[in-house]
């Protein structure tokens, strides 16, 4: 009798596991597929227009009340700064939410400048990774964070595919993550462009609705044959970013990850995470089953117990 | 010879009319243009329009199709080959001062028949024209070659910031 019930139990648990596996992807679909806020704003960065004047860095510094820089903002020697054995160019940090870097790209006759800041992903990895929910993707398109709830765990720094969030290492008692917030508080939510866009003398930064910028980006590629690589970086990458890029040289030559994939980072774990509730539902039942079986086994095993005792006696006699 | 006299009279009249028209046209052309778009951080730029009109091949080099001298840009010729002189020729009549204001962005979005969806603002239009040509003709291209900075500008760029770390960086 107990053999049949065990078989039935095993069959049921196999069916349960199969149901979990099958239901997983469906759940994931229902949970995800966020295609971004329809009227979210963005910035189209045109690397062919940037002249490396660093005015955007100065504007950001002023707007965000950041500490004074080590060198004046019109000092071009910062373009020669490298870190980690010459491999790493300047990166945004707690004192600068944006930096401009110069690249002497192989396929360009003159230097190419690239501004680096948060790309304000449609589905931000930093937000997904934050367990205190410090991050918010606003309908205006900005990825902002609440430093009051930030516990400084730096998960977002690991999660960000663009290595953007900086950390206030200098603060001994309340270190928090720091990054570009699209000037959300002071400008974006009031319908104003971010400070860097406003100061740019070359309109290397075009501010507008993300969906319009995509049209403009493709139009530029089409109406200027030979000027651009036929790719609008950020339109699809990692689920789409609100800052997008046009370049005259292949993107890997100016420090971009050429193929980060088009899936948002959260999709790497969404399938797994969707099984967690199923595990929570099934495991109690499954282990209760195991437990009951084990109990029955105990009752069943009286005979074996006797034998063991018998052996022990034999051993003891020896 | 009455026919000859008529011809001479006509020619004279025509020349006179042309001279008057030309004089009127060039009356509108400024010798100097004062550009004070970035007046907060930089002194205004006194653009020597007269000198640049002598340098340029024709007005379209800067004024696209609006000056009535035709256009040579392949992208513009399709529609603007016979556009003639536009009612307004100055940069700021087409290139707006605040291209990223909510008002301008919404106006652009509402105008579904607008072909020029990517017209640069005034500041970019100036810089593209100036720097683009200056690079070709070895004109000045550095920021402060054209723009004298105000004290507020010096503060904005942190002119007095001291480099405490070496160029190698200290991370």
- For the biggest β-sheet of chain A, the strand order reads 8-1-9
How many separate domains make up the residues of chain A?
2
Mean pLDDT of chain B: 84
**What is the first-to-last residue Cα distance of chain B?**
95 Å
Which two protein chains have the largest interface (Cβ within 8 Å of the partner's Cβ), and how many residues from each?
A: A-B, 41 and 33 residues
Give the fraction of residues assigned to helices of chain B.
40-55%
Low-pLDDT ranges of chain A: 20-31, 313-318
Brief summary:
Chain A has two domains: 2-31 and 269-298; 41-265, Alpha-Beta Plaits. Chain A has eight helices and nine strands. Chain A has helices at 2-31, 55-63, 125-129, 155-159, 195-199, 210-223, 267-300, 302-317; strands spanning 41-46, 99-103, 112-116, 135-137, 143-145, 166-167, 177-178, 205-209, 243-246.
Report what the structure shows.
The complex is a heterodimer of chains A (318) and B (171). Helix content of chain A is 37%, strand content 11%. Chain A is α+β, with helices and mostly antiparallel strands. Chain A has 2 domains: 60 residues; 225 residues, Alpha-Beta Plaits. In chain A, the strands form 4 sheets. Chain A has a 3-stranded mixed β-sheet with strand order 8-1-9. Chain A has a two-stranded antiparallel sheet with strand order 2-3. In chain A, α1 packs antiparallel against α7. In chain A, 37% of the residues are buried. The C terminus of chain A is likely disordered. Chain B has a domain of 94 residues: Cytochrome C3, CATH 3.90.10. Chain B has a two-stranded antiparallel sheet. The interface between A and B is large, with 41 and 33 residues.
